[in-house]
Design a protein that fits this description.
- This protein is an alpha/beta fold.
- It has one domain: Alpha-Beta Barrel (TIM Barrel).
- About 20% of the residues lie in helices and about 20% in strands.
- The protein is built from six helices and twelve strands.
- The chain has an eight-stranded mixed beta sheet with strand order 1-2-5-6-7-8-9-10. A two-stranded antiparallel sheet has the order 3-4.
- Helix 3 links the parallel strand 6 and strand 7.
- It is globular and about 45 Å long.
- It starts with a strand and ends in a 7-residue tail after the last strand.
């Protein structure tokens, strides 16, 4: 339930919770749901409940065992702020992150209303990055909720980008990730949508990370935008260079069109 990740903007995944439910268009072709069904069919005990929300308290202390600094995506197979996850359990997850200053934890949610409601009850040490998914203009309110959260790094994951985002409120946002949907029935992402977000990030001096064009075969569409890759990251103290497979461009970004 923790492993090296193929996700371009992180190194490891840690899943003290699995399972989720759909809340918006970004969930339509959920990769985690597809993977959970596959693991359930294979008899993986962690997915005995399929994609129903399931707590795994025996995995809570796993990051304490990792001494080398790592970038860790928390709950890649769930949503930490899902309504079925008790606040007490969320606090336990945060307590572990608080105890691991050597790691950078990336938390991503679509349930920004609950995030905003409970944020003041959680301890936001500088190693906890908080993000929201923003797949189209119908969920821009998630950014407003995120701006209330006292995280040192707040970020947006515009993936799967399924519509234009022309007026992103980027005040207090330290990072933007953009990516197209991938896998079966992937919806197309238009170049002009990416260009608009890129230009907004440049104007606001927000680091821009382009994850992928997506499609049924994302390996064929690649990661280049404007003839190059964009792996910009927020300023931080973690040494990413120790990771054997990934190198990240730390922001302040290089400005180029």
């Amino acid at each position: 339930m923790a492993s090296e990740s193929k996700i371009e903007w992180t190194q490891m995944t840690w899943n003290p919770v699995t399972g989720c439910s759909k809340v918006s268009q970004g969930c339509k072709h959920c990769y985690a749901e597809r993977m959970a069904k596959r693991l359930h069919a294979m008899g993986n005990s962690r997915y005995a409940n399929g994609f129903n929300v399931t707590l795994h308290p025996d995995l809570l202390e796993l990051p304490l065992k990792w001494k080398q600094p790592r970038i860790i995506f928390v709950n890649s197979m769930s949503d930490l702020f899902h309504e079925k996850i008790p606040l007490e359990y969320i606090e336990r997850v945060f307590a572990i992150m608080n105890r691991c200053p050597q790691h950078t934890f990336q938390v991503l949610t679509k349930r920004s209303v609950r995030l905003a409601q409970v944020a003041r009850e959680l301890e936001w040490t500088p190693n906890i990055w908080m993000g929201v998914s923003v797949e189209d203009e119908h969920v821009l309110s998630r950014i407003i909720d995120l701006q209330q959260v006292p995280a040192v790094v707040r970020f947006l994951s515009c993936e799967p980008l399924v519509g234009p985002l022309e007026n992103l409120p980027l005040k207090g946002i330290q990072w933007v990730i953009v990516g197209g949907e991938s896998g079966p029935h992937a919806r197309p992402m238009k170049r002009e949508w990416v260009t608009s977000i890129f230009r907004q990030c440049r104007k606001a001096q927000v680091p821009f990370f382009f994850k992928q064009w997506g499609g049924v075969r994302k390996d064929l569409t690649g990661r280049e935008f404007n003839g190059r890759t964009y792996d910009e990251m927020p300023k931080q103290e973690t040494d990413f260079s120790s990771h054997p497979q990934k190198s990240f461009q730390s922001a302040v970004p290089v400005f180029c069109e």
